């Protein structure tokens, strides 16, 4: 078997050849496999700018045009010229690589296999002094690093997908080995078949358990790892994705009563309360939509009118308070109803009274998280609380922040306000009494 036939049997995807009577013209397209993810640093060789860094497992192929004379391999080496896809390797280095390949030939011995392995395994990178020690990062100079970064990242993604699709992997749910093209590898590196993920995620979305929508692996379930929207959209239908978004938003509003919807009809995104807002100056009313950047008042839902200007809602509250202070059949009350509308005033009054009752209940039955101000109610257990939204550790009795590494020192240090009061108990008259 000739050297070319051996190469075609080992690397069928690398070689395309055409032969005439006198010479053989070969074309090798050899991808550069880095193995484990490696840092690649792109440096602008024409201007001073910050270097770009990305992690890759492969580089675009090098194209080898080879001419085999009739006297190869006995007397003459192969003629070779090298090009790089996307021009990621500059011409001076390509010329050095051509010289290295010719120097690898020994009279009387074939050298084509050594060339393929020298390039495919990336050994030529060290010979071209592209690897920086001791980190082992690959440094590439290019006139447009940003453009080259997108090309290298796109090729690496396509190469990893092609390699993944050709393999077979065991699914931990159905316990069968399935072709990679019918599987999905999650960001946590666990692999499952698409059919099992579809059944599991669709059931979670249908039943409203979107907080469990993640990797089915027991370790990931224990850690509460959630899947990204991109992963979910690759498995379930678009209708299921829309329901998933709606449920996530609903849960977010339930956990944070201060969230409001953006008033723009085309947006409607949830807008959180700004951090470190100044309530006395009216800054707590300012909302800036993270989706469309619309600035508006969180009370009246109109374009932001500034902290100094009075909000229309504040006038409405004054009218309601005056209305509630009047007797039911008084002439003043009838006059207000004629002026503003009886139904409107009664709705505003009912809403105001409901809000006051909610505020009273929250003040009496909950404790605000010192980290994000989320109101939390304790039904049983100890006074060490962990906020479900911001993960802040705090004391339910006094509202103090606790040290995450040792939260119980707050209850075990003599002289502290909550010393020896980790637990409360209910007395016979159903009032909460601290346990000393």
Layout: helices, strands, pairs:
Layout: H1 3-10, E1 15-19, E2 24-44, E3 52-68, E4 79-84, H2 91-103, H3 112-120, H4 123-127, E5 131-132, E6 137-142, H5 145-166, E7 168-170, E8 177-179, E9 183-185, E10 191-193, H6 194-207, H7 218-223, H8 229-233, H9 238-255, E11 260-261, E12 270-271, E13 286-288, E14 295-297, H10 312-325, H11 331-340, H12 342-365, E15 367-368, E16 375-376, E17 384-386, E18 393-395, H13 409-412, E19 424-426, E20 432-434
Parallel strand pairs: 2-6
Antiparallel strand pairs: 1-2, 2-3, 3-4, 5-6, 7-8, 9-10, 11-12, 13-14, 15-16, 17-18, 19-20
Could you explain how this protein is built, in words?
This protein is elongated. 35% of the residues lie in helices and 22% in strands. The termini are far apart. Strands 1, 2, 3, 4, 5 and 6 form a six-stranded mixed sheet that branches. Strands 7-8 form a two-stranded antiparallel sheet. Strands 9-10 form a two-stranded antiparallel ribbon. The protein has four domains: 3-156, no CATH class; 170-255, Zinc/RING finger domain, C3HC4 (zinc finger) (Herpes Virus-1); 312-365; 368-436, no CATH class. The model is unreliable at 426-433 (pLDDT under 50). The chain is an alpha+beta fold and 436 residues long. Strand 1 (15-19) and strand 2 (24-44) form a beta hairpin. It contains 13 helices and 20 strands. Helix 10 packs across helix 12 and helix 11 (331-340) packs across helix 12 (342-365).
């Amino acid at each position: 078997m000739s050297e070319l036939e051996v190469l075609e049997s080992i690397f069928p995807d690398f070689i395309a050849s055409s032969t005439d009577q006198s010479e053989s013209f070969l074309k090798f397209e050899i991808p550069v496999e880095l193995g484990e993810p490696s840092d690649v640093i792109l440096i602008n060789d024409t201007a001073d700018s910050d270097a770009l860094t990305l992690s890759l497992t492969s580089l675009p192929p090098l194209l080898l045009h080879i001419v085999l004379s009739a006297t190869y391999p006995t007397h003459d080496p192969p003629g070779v010229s090298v090009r790089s896809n996307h021009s990621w390797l500059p011409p001076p280095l390509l010329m050095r690589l051509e010289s290295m390949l010719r120097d690898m030939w020994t009279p009387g011995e074939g050298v084509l296999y050594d060339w393929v392995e020298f390039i495919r395994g990336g050994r030529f990178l060290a010979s071209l002094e592209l690897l920086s020690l001791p980190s082992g990062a690959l440094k590439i100079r290019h006139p447009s690093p940003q453009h080259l970064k997108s090309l290298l990242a796109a090729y690496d993604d396509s190469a990893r997908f092609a390699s993944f699709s050709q393999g077979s992997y065991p699914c931990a749910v159905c316990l069968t080995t399935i072709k990679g093209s019918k599987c999905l590898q999650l960001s946590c590196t666990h692999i499952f078949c698409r059919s099992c993920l579809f059944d599991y995620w669709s059931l979670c979305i249908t039943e409203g358990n979107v907080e469990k929508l993640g990797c089915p692996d027991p370790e990931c379930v224990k850690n509460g790892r959630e899947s990204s929207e991109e992963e979910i959209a690759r498995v379930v239908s678009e209708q299921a994705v829309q329901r998933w978004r709606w449920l996530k938003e609903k849960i977010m509003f339930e956990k944070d009563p201060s969230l409001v919807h953006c008033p723009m009809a085309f947006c409607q995104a949830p807008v959180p309360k700004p951090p470190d807002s100044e309530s006395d100056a009216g800054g707590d009313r300012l909302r800036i939509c993270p989706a469309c950047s619309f600035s508006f008042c969180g009370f009246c839902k109109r374009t932001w009118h500034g902290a100094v200007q009075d909000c229309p809602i504040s006038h409405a509250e004054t009218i309601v308070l005056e209305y509630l202070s009047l007797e039911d059949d008084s002439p003043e009350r009838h006059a207000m109803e004629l002026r503003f509308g009886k139904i409107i005033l009664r709705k505003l009054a009912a809403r105001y009274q409901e809000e006051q009752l909610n505020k009273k209940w929250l003040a009496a039955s909950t404790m605000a998280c010192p980290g994000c101000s989320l109101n939390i109610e304790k039904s049983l257990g100890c006074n060490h609380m962990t906020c479900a939204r911001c993960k802040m550790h705090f004391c339910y009795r006094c509202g103090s922040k606790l040290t995450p590494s040792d939260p119980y020192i707050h209850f075990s240090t003599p002289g502290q306000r909550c010393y020896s009061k980790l637990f409360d108990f209910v007395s016979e008259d159903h009032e909460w009494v601290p346990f000393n």
